[in-house]
User: What shape does this take?
Amino acid sequence: MRLPDGRGYFGRFGGRFVPETLMAALIELEEGYQACKSDPEFRKELDYYLKYYCGRPTPLYLAGRLTKRLGGAKVYLKREDLNHTGAHKINNTLGQALLARRMGKSRVIAETGAGQHGVATATVATMFGLECAIYMGEEDMRRQELNVFRMRLLGARVIPVTAGSKTLKDATSEALRDWVSNVKSTHYILGSVVGPHPYPAMVRDFQAVIGRETKEQILESEGKLPDYLVACVGGGSNAIGFFHPFLEDEGVRLIGVEAAGKGLSSGSHAASLTGGSPGVLHGNLSYLLQDAAGQVKVAHSISAGLDYPGVGPEHAYLKDTGRATYVAVADAEALNAFVLLTECEGIIPALESAHAAAYLEQLLPGTSAAESVVVCLSGRGDKDVEVASKALEEVGI
Amino acid sequence: MNRIDQRFAQLRASGRKGLIGYLTAGDPDLEVTGALVLEMARCGVDMVELGVPFSDPVADGPVIQAASARALKKGVTLEDVLALAGTLRARTGIPLLMMTYYNPIFAYGIPKFVKTALKSGIDGVVVPDLPLEESEELCQAMETAGIHFIYFLSPTSSAERIVETVKRARGFIYCVSVTGVTGAREAISELGRKLLNRVGGFTQLPLALGFGISSPEQLIALGDDGDAVIIGSAIVKLVEAGGTTEEIINRVGKFLNDFKFIESFRS
Assistant: This one.
């Protein structure tokens, strides 16, 4: 059965927990998206921009030195970091901007944590001539000044969010409030597979290009499907896009890596699936970091892109059905992988993607050279060098 | 008979418009909230809506967001607000509505929530992030206990949604006067009046207009449209101004008396 169902549910997860004012917009969006999905012209237009503007297909690169260093299965990297704007985010913003244009919306808004989704949204808004406002937590704006500058240079209005924890969670709430208020003119380009239906399904579909390309590329280089796919999970858009075309290939083990921050037992982490419980936030029912009274907790991760207390409902479903496995790695392990990948391969990964790479240290010892693992390198690390240099200094590396 | 239905029956008989006052429970603390509810009842407010603070109140503007954050700092939970309602119920017959986002109820558990709400004398529950499509389980459980689940309709609601909503709705319908979040606005929006007229064409249920209502002038401008108004942020703002319990109570009481003064001319 194809999920989600008609009500936007993946098993018991998903749905549409939003104020009545937004229901009309979500229904309009769902209809607009369905129309585009079955329209070959839309697909053609999107493919055109993915190829000539983003630079797709992104390479599947055999990380030879890393493989040698770690021992065991061959390690491939799916190079989403080579996309225009430096991460997988643009796969989704391109799709949604094209959709917004078709739906006659003149303005787009988005939330952003690290600023990658904000930059990817501002980029496509500029290219398609759409007015653009980006909500960003004040705390994140301070941590990611360079991306704030980029977005402004691209003509977006960056609106600081001062409520709550002043991070991604609050930026998302504020973007939802903007959408409630300007729903006629505005499309909300949500950046991950979270939010109310149809976002988790739509963003997944736009990101599934990652998995489709990977499948084709690995069959070409290995002649068989990979044994493992490993991707980082914050909201979970790169992971779900990467996993999705492999869901029915049962021999392919799917592993999502969450941010354990300072450690799962510290309480200071962003691991909703491995350290949270089911709850409702930002329009969907999924795993959530929350206290006993149902108040949402503030997440922590060295990686701003994983710093979110919720996770996409389809991941919650894949966890419960056992089709995917979810693990968590700490800030320090991600930092090590950040250095390792740079030293071995000359590729500086985003701290988010470094979480996925970090899990290789645990995974590879149990594998054989006849096997292969593909890591989704969701973004490049240029944005993180300042945070990383400070953190590395602290631990004396 | 549910106290909400009783009150609207009385209002209709007297030709008056009802006044529903909102408070974020626990701001500045639960004791003051309790005292304010009793003051509102004394001033002739028709129903009180007790807001449960939530970490991510997406339907609320800056004033209620801030109040919610203050109450959360005090550690106020859904259970605390239910307990407050219980103590108030022993002292007043005013209809009590509880406003909460869905996650605190989800975490508490629906059966336990319904049982406790019933015991606490809650008459209606308002859940801004639980639209028609997601509300069935909670709505049925509440109605079985004789507590109304209050539905929202907004200027963006289609005719189909209005029809489906009025079929399920009990007590009254919460009509959102603007496409936006809670918070005081200068004038009654045309959208709000239009919505009242549209919804009125489909149901005999009382209609309460909320979001943006903050002045007696707006009440006058509303004329015969709608059966009640809900005042939230404007009251919360007066609570936010602080001072002693007595000062807060006097400030809120004076503000509400102006509304009651207007309404007294109708009867």
Summary: The CA atoms of residues 106 and 118 of chain B lie 17 Å apart. The radius of gyration of chain B is 17 Å. Chain B has a mean pLDDT of 95.
